[in-house]
Every structure is written in C-alpha cells, then in structure tokens.
Design brief:
This protein is an alpha+beta fold and 506 residues long. It folds into three domains: 100 residues, 3-Layer(aba) Sandwich (Rossmann fold); 70 residues, Dna Ligase, domain 1; 242 residues, ATP-grasp fold, B domain (D-amino Acid Aminotransferase, Chain A, domain 1). The protein is 34% helix and 25% strand. Strand 9 and strand 10 form a beta hairpin. Helix 4 packs antiparallel against helix 5, helix 12 runs antiparallel to helix 13 and helix 12 runs parallel beside helix 16. The longest helix has 23 residues. The structure holds ligand MV4. The site of ligand MV4 has 18 residues, from strand 8, strand 12 and strand 13.
C-alpha cells in the first residue's frame, strides 16, 4: 500500500478519499484554492498546500502544480476524485510520466473510452448490446442524414468526445437535422475541442441504470450490481438508489456480465462505471465513466465494500480480494444529493454562509459532506454540498428512513435541494418505483404540493436552531490556544487543523 498520496480535489469527495486513507494508514495530502482555505478537506488531511486562486482553471485544474506538489511532498500516487482532472487522459499520462501512480484506469484505456464511438466498437466486439447507431464519427451532413433515415427518427446526435449530455441534440424529423448538426458540433468544439459527431436512435423514456465494476491490474474484473440514476434534472442526478426497482436478479446478472465484458475489453483497471439505458426489459450500453462516481455510496451500503479503499488497493497493485460469487447484496440504499440550489427558484444557485447545520444520524444514516456550519458557499465550483445516504432492509423502509433523516437535517443560510427531496419521497410514482429519466419534468407540481408534516416539523426545528446559533454568536471568542499542535478555537467549539505547509514553489 502507498505511504502517502495527494488528493487532487475538494469538497465531499476529497473528504471521502481522506477517510479511506486514514483507515488504510495512508498519509493524505490535500490541496486548496484561495476559496477553500477553511474547508473540511484541508483540516482533515495530514498536510495541505495552496495551489492557486479560486477559479478552477487556476487551481484544481492545474495538473502541473498538482504533480509538483505530489513530487515535492513525497507522494507516490494521485487520487483525482471526480470532475476536474479525473477523466483527462493527458493528466493521467502526465502523472504516469512523473513516476507517480494515477489512482484510476491507465491513461490509454481512459482515452479509448473517451471516444464514445471507439467505446461502442470495443464493447460491441465483446458482445454487449449498444443503442442502435453508427460506430464512427461522421464529418458530413449528407452521410449523417442517410444514417438517420436508416435508424428512423427520432435520433440523437452526439459528440464523439462527449458524455454527460454535452453536445447532444434530439432530432425528431429530417428538417431539423442540419441545425442540430451545426449546434451539436459547435457545442462539442467548445466543450471538448473536438467537433466530431455520431448518431444513435433516440430511445424515449428509458431508465438510466449503471453497473459498478472493479478491475485489478492482473485481469480480474467483477461487478457490484447496479445503481438506478433516473431521477435527474438537466443531466444532473438528484437521487440514486440501489438496487433499481426495475431489475430482476436475472437482469442484474446479465447487465453485470455485460459490464464486466465491456470493462475487460477496454483494458480497464480500477473502479469504473458502465452506463446503460434500460427499457422494456432490455438494456443498451451507453458509455463508461472512468472515475469514482458521486453516487458510489449506495453501492457501498448494499455490498459492504469500500470503493475508495478498493481504488487504493488496486492502484497499489493488490489483486482483487473478493470473487464475483462472494459479492452479496443486502437491503436497499438511497442517496439524496444536497446541493446549494434553490428548488423554489428553478434550482438557481444559492450562495452565502451556512449559518446552521445540524446533521442527521441514527441507524442506517450516512452523511458525506464537504461543508460544516460556518462554511461559505460560493459560485466557483459545483454546487454539491453533501450527500445524504440511507440504508435499510427494503425500499419502503429506506424511503421512511430518508424522510426521517431529511427531517432531522437542518441547513440555514443557503437554500438547498432538501425540499425537493422531501417532496419526491412523498410522491406516489417515486414511492411505487415507477419512474424513468423524465421523472422531474413529468412532475412539475412536486414543489407546489403542500410541504407536509415532515417539512413543517423540519422548518420548526430549523427556526429553533437559528435562535440557538444567534445566541452562540453573541458569546465571546475563546482565547487562542498556543499549543504547538495547531489547535485553534472557534466560537463555541474547538476545531483542529493540520499543520499547513509553507510550500511556495509558485
Ligand atoms: C441517450 C438517451 C436516449 N437515447 N442515448 C445522457 C447523458 C449521456 N450519458 C447519455 N445520455 C442519454 N443518451 C440514446 N440513444 C438518453 C440519455 C439520457 C438523457 C437524455 C435526455 C435527458 C435526460 C437524460 C438522462 C439520462 C440519459
């Protein structure tokens, strides 16, 4: 196992990786931008170093600085988290060239999967069903038109370098194709610097289901079942669960085998996710996400496997310690992404200070967060503040538990998606498990409903805590502790922060 690694990320995922490091006895080096000096990932790490100003392009996206900090501090590996540099083959290659281990797939496998048409060709050869479509990018409109006619409308024009919904255009009829082609090419050029496009049959109202895989460096590949990710808004997932209400054991098995075949064919190593569309009992390969994902905890809860620990073990060369037949799935897990967006105002990003934060607890409740009470929420990064995950014996019990946990949760000072989550937990189509990727748009009245007893009680608790916070703020500051360990006092509570290096290589 590594002795020391650098975490090239921030927020809840940086905290999550630090926790895995602690349990493995690995030293964790954090980095932070000017906006993140006082963030939990900085306090929790063994060492933390500044890497630049608030904009990600000047900090978390500066691969050169991250590698330099890793080398100077004696790290052996870099964990990229998700987002930022996690799926940039150039960064993975640069890490490898610097003699460090990239905690993720090999740069070459990542590059091959990044080209969505190449990914289609690779998994097709391995016998995996893909959405009907073409397997090579097309450069000219006439050829695209011909292919679209063959597939039959509606079709989806996609960026070859795409993923996550960028550079995608639904085309309902031939007349719209030219405009979609231009629009998608432009968007793809802007987003990926690559305007190549391809086309697939547009599958209407499918479910979005993904399979978690683990692949070691010796060729062993297993899957850990699925995550149901259909509750999304504008390609941002909002609620995930495992197992999917739509899968039977046979379908899970078939989908799992397909995912393993896809990962094997791609020469994939480490933790990865194989995305599928699912409709009418059939599933179709979409793409591979070459990273740890935001929603990985629901898989951890039902399998008992620590996926970040698995990433570190695999990257350090250990063989998989569990066989496919030993994977057991227990109970049901739900995750709500708590983000700083105002559901009452079209999910507009909200900023400010988290004045009050009361975190839920109790049986089967997990809180993965990058913020604490007092944190400032700005606009520089992704609005995700925390993830609330619950685990229970079955789906109905998990929903009740999530409602209970959401009711306990108090966040004051920044508008969050919590009211949305409370509304979904109470909504009949969600409760019956009968939903697809159009769920959010198909339920525009979610937040117009009476908030219900749970939300009312949560609001009453919030009001009481806000008063308590005001009383606390009126107290004088405790005197600073001169203890050399770096213990520092805040109003009302003590916080420890690690020694902060004075690395000024820049
Ligand atoms: C599709 C699709 C339907 N048909 N491809 C979205 C992100 C990227 N991973 C692939 N995505 C999709 N690809 C075909 N041929 C549906 C999605 C999709 C989606 C599309 C529109 C609005 C929301 C969506 C949510 C999940 C998946």
């Amino acid at each position: 196992m590594f002795k020391k690694i650098l975490i090239a990320n921030r927020g809840e995922i940086a905290v999550r990786v630090i926790r895995a490091c602690r349990e493995l006895g690995v030293q964790a080096v954090a980095v932070y931008s000017e906006a993140d000096r006082d963030s939990p990932h900085v306090w929790l790490a063994d060492e933390a170093y500044p890497i630049g100003s608030a904009p990600a392009t000047e900090s978390y996206l500066r691969g050169d600085r991250l590698i330099e900090v890793a080398l100077r501090t004696g790290c052996e590996a870099i964990h990229p988290g998700y987002g930022f540099l996690a799926e940039r083959p150039a960064f993975a290659h640069a890490v490898e060239s610097a003699g460090l281990v990239f905690i993720g797939p090999p740069g070459d496998a990542m590059a091959a999967l990044g080209d969505k048409t190449e990914a289609r060709r690779t998994v097709k050869k391995a016998g995996v069903a893909v959405v009907p479509g073409i397997d090579w990018p097309v450069a000219d409109l006439d050829l695209l038109k011909k292919k679209a006619e063959e597939l039959g409308y509606p079709v989806l024009v996609k960026a070859a370098a795409g993923g996550g919904g960028k550079g995608m255009r639904i085309v309902w009829a031939a007349e719209e194709l030219a405009a979609a082609f231009r629009g998608a090419a432009h968007e793809a050029e802007f987003a990926f610097g690559d305007r190549r496009l391809y086309v697939e049959k547009y599958l209407e109202s499918p479910r979005h289901i993904e399979i978690q895989v683990l692949a070691d460096n010796l060729g062993n590949v297993i899957h850990l079942g699925e995550r149901e990710c259909s509750i999304q808004r504008r390609h941002q997932k909002m609620i995930e669960e495992s197992p999917s209400p739509a899968l039977t054991p046979d379908l899970r098995d078939a989908m799992g085998r397909a995912a393993v075949a896809a990962a094997s064919a791609a020469g994939y190593h480490n933790a990865g996710t194989v995305e599928f569309l699912f409709r009418d009992g059939r599933f179709y390969f979409l793409e591979v996400n070459a990273r740890i994902q935001v929603e990985h905890p629901v898989t951890e809860m039902v399998t008992g496997i620590d996926l970040v620990q698995a990433q570190l073990r695999i990257a350090s060369g250990e063989p998989l310690w569990i066989r496919q037949e030993d994977v057991r799935w227990q109970g049901h897990a739900l995750e709500c992404r708590i983000s700083g967006e105002d559901p009452w105002n079209n999910f507009f990003p909200s900023t400010g200070r988290i004045e009050v934060l009361r975190v839920p607890g109790g049986p089967g409740v997990r809180w993965d967060s990058g913020v604490v009470q007092g944190s400032e929420v700005g606009l520089h990064y992704d609005p995700l503040l925390a993830k609330l995950i619950v685990h229970a014996l079955d789906r109905p019990a998990a929903i009740v538990r999530m409602q209970r946990a959401l009711e306990e949760l108090v966040i004051q000072g920044v508008a969050t998606t919590v009211p949305f989550h409370l509304a979904v937990m109470d909504e009949p189509d969600f409760r019956s498990g009968n939903y697809d990727i159009r769920y959010v748009e198909a339920h525009p009245d979610l937040l117009r409903r009476d908030p219900g007893d749970l939300a009312r009680r949560a609001a009453a608790v919030a009001a009481a805590l806000l008063e308590e916070a005001a009383r606390l703020r009126a107290l004088p500051l405790a005197p600073p502790d001169s203890d050399a360990t770096g213990r520092e006092w805040r109003r009302g509570a003590s916080l420890t922060r690690p020694w902060r290096g004075s690395w000024t290589g820049r």
